[in-house]
């Protein structure tokens, strides 16, 4: 699913070492938290997973794609194996909830018949059945993030990558969202959550990978972020 071996990433413009000799493996079906302080390398690691960046050296394999050598024309196909959820939702404001989710299917050429069947199912799964015609501005922050998760899920990705998904939510909504991601994981989808929220991580008994100053400092199953 995710394999990184001796990964180093140096930004040429500033000669900054963002990641230094990082090795990790995330297997299919796992739920993993990636934690660390600001500037630790979390964002760089995320961008290596999504193909926004290439490693300076080392091996990065995502869902059987070698990200060091992947051709640019193959990136869209690789990215369809990922569902990415952002902190700021990134919904299309002039589209309804239904159309925001359906748009992700239309982009990959899904037939209308499949869209009409799949979108209501996914909206029900994330607790938004009955909200199909509402606009993003009519939703709470938690509801908007659920739309973002539905959009990430609708094309049946092998893995969900959530980048600070609870950053704009209060503690109660944050917990609800994490329980939803846990439910999605239990249905078979690999989940990687990037966060700095210690209380939230410590509420779940999941694997926690900690990076700091570009180095992986711990990787454990105790589900505790100190």
Sum this structure up briefly:
With 226 residues, this protein is of the alpha/beta class. Helices cover 32% and strands 27% of the residues.
Topology:
Layout: E1 2-11, E2 16-26, E3 31-35, H1 42-50, E4 57-62, E5 65-66, H2 75-79, E6 82-85, H3 97-107, H4 112-125, H5 141-153, E7 159-163, H6 171-186, E8 190-195, H7 198-202, E9 207-212, E10 215-220
Helix pairs in contact: 3-4, 3-5, 4-5
Describe this structure as you would to a colleague.
The chain is an alpha/beta fold and 226 residues long. The protein has a domain at 92-156. Helix content is 32%, strand content 27%. It has seven helices and ten strands. The protein has helices spanning 42-50, 75-79, 97-107, 112-125, 141-153, 171-186, 198-202, and strands at residues 2-11, 16-26, 31-35, 57-62, 65-66, 82-85, 159-163, 190-195, 207-212, 215-220. Strands 6-7-8-3-9-10 form a six-stranded mixed beta sheet, sandwiched between helices. A four-stranded antiparallel beta sheet has the order 2-1-4-5, covered by helices on one side. β4 (57-62) and β5 (65-66) form a beta hairpin. The longest helix has 16 residues, at 171-186. The chain is globular. It starts with a strand and ends in a 6-residue tail after the last strand. The mean pLDDT is 93.
């Amino acid at each position: 699913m995710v394999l990184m071996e001796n990964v180093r990433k140096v930004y040429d413009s500033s000669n900054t070492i963002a990641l230094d000799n990082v090795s990790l493996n995330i297997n299919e079906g796992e739920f993993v938290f990636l934690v660390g302080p600001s500037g630790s390398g979390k964002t760089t690691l995320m961008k290596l997973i999504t193909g926004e960046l290439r490693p300076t050296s080392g091996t990065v394999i995502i869902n059987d794609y070698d990200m060091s050598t992947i051709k640019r024309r193959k990136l869209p196909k690789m990215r369809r194996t990922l569902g990415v959820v952002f902190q700021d939702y990134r919904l299309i404001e002039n589209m309804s909830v239904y159309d925001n989710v359906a748009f992700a299917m239309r982009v990959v050429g899904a037939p209308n018949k499949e869209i009409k069947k799949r979108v209501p199912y996914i909206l029900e799964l994330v607790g938004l059945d009955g909200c199909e015609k509402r606009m993003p501005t009519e939703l709470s922050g938690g509801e908007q993030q659920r739309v973002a998760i539905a959009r990430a899920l609708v094309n049946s990705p092998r893995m969900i990558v959530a980048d600070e998904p609870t950053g704009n939510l209060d503690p109660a909504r944050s917990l609800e969202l994490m329980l939803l991601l846990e439910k999605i994981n239990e249905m078979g989808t690999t989940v990687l959550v990037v966060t700095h929220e210690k209380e939230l991580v410590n509420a779940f008994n999941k694997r926690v990978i900690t990076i700091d100053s570009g180095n992986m400092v711990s990787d454990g199953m105790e589900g505790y972020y100190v």
